[in-house]
């Protein structure tokens, strides 16, 4: 998290209402206000270097009339600058001028939960279960940093697509400020715990607020109402929670654990994270790149063509290799986890047309959400696959299996690209750009083969091809391929255009091996994977070296610090990609062999886990075993 503080004079001349105010490389229009506080206005702004949309909170120093107001502002900045979670609004930079303080933060495009409740009314339990999985993850990092929010409520939980973001830390306390901050009464009374009414704040007061918020989102009203704060506090302490509508027993218990009057009996955030309501398997956490677990091939639980990994309690998988016993013979010790990218809106084509500046990071790649129609096709296909028995395995199903494996490989690479784009652990000049290009080109190479099949060319060596393409199932697969191809083409074009800056391009092609495949020709050659693995090897070594400098080994069961966990995740994904690329070379024309030996459907549908120091040790051992 980069927090930059600068002193600089702003122009004193009047500014026209339609002009853009400029703060370094950020700007906003005075007509683009999206929120207002007691001494601040929030504007929709942009980063003029990257065209990324941001939120700019302008705090008028004239409104800070007491030392307490200044202390609250300092605490807000201190809190946000320590946090880096996908479920907390990110702070990019802070600027101080003579008259104002500017907080440049992440822009959340879908409003907040309070507005959602006002517009749509009470929400479905299943949707809230997904949202609260994210909220709990965000709050868990806050607790790790010793931060207490003190004003949690639906209006202070923003939405970026479908991802919840805890925001508005104006009343937050941190370990640096809590000792000097006067223990004044802050927050919104309807969401305050009985202890907060007595000016006692802690994690448990925030947990209470989350319970009230969940209750309100479910039923459209808060648990207790009264004519005064004093009466409200009394009712909270004496009147049991009454549920005015039907919810599951698990959800009811979750709320009651949050709203225990006795703080010692109230749940901790870790207990909520493990609560059965958030662990129900049919309701998966909203994370990752938006894929709906498509094309999961269970085949009725048979071990004929697909073997599933057994997930251990520590998040590791069993000793069966996803790449098969005959290839690499290495254990895949980590279950791939979903990227936290992928729920943002599509960026404008105008932004894509702008060239990249030499030696500047690539712009963030905006992910495209899966369409409802595509999801329905996927679900229908899953049901058909799951009904197959061994004796029903025929040429058509074998061909389907080959095609689906190719699509799952593209899904996995899409997630790899998101991780490369998010975690900046590859710092060697242009190595990251090369890697990001090759991943996206690899997707397009595979999609080109699939498009060839749709066009009537047997690019995947399918059995009884002419008969197969007349099958109704093939028509459904073709529709899904076209939808994926549209999304992946948009992403490739974004990266390709970014690398066409003449000066930058000239430096990229100094690497003659890379230059040999630096084009938009999507014909598949074995040489592509040889060069790819060379670059993957360099990236893996660099990330491993960087992590070695940062990690001080602890107990193997201890969770990795969040600021380096991303690097470990990226490292694990790149190692798996290295293995998959090696497997493609081994069975270059045997697409069925790749589908069987790679176990790619399991890798593509990996579930998120928190990583420990033990996991990192296992990943390093894997690097040694593979001789990368």
TrEMBL record:
One of its GO terms (molecular function) is ATP binding. One of its GO terms (cellular component) is membrane. Residues 339-392 are annotated as: Disordered. ATP binds at residue 57. Residues 342-362, 376-386 have a biased composition (Polar residues). InterPro entries: Atg1-like, Prot_kinase_dom, Protein_kinase_ATP_BS, Ser/Thr_kinase_AS. Residues 28-278 form the Protein kinase domain. Keywords: ATP-binding, Kinase, Nucleotide-binding, Transferase. One of its GO terms (biological process) is autophagosome assembly. This is Protein kinase domain-containing protein.
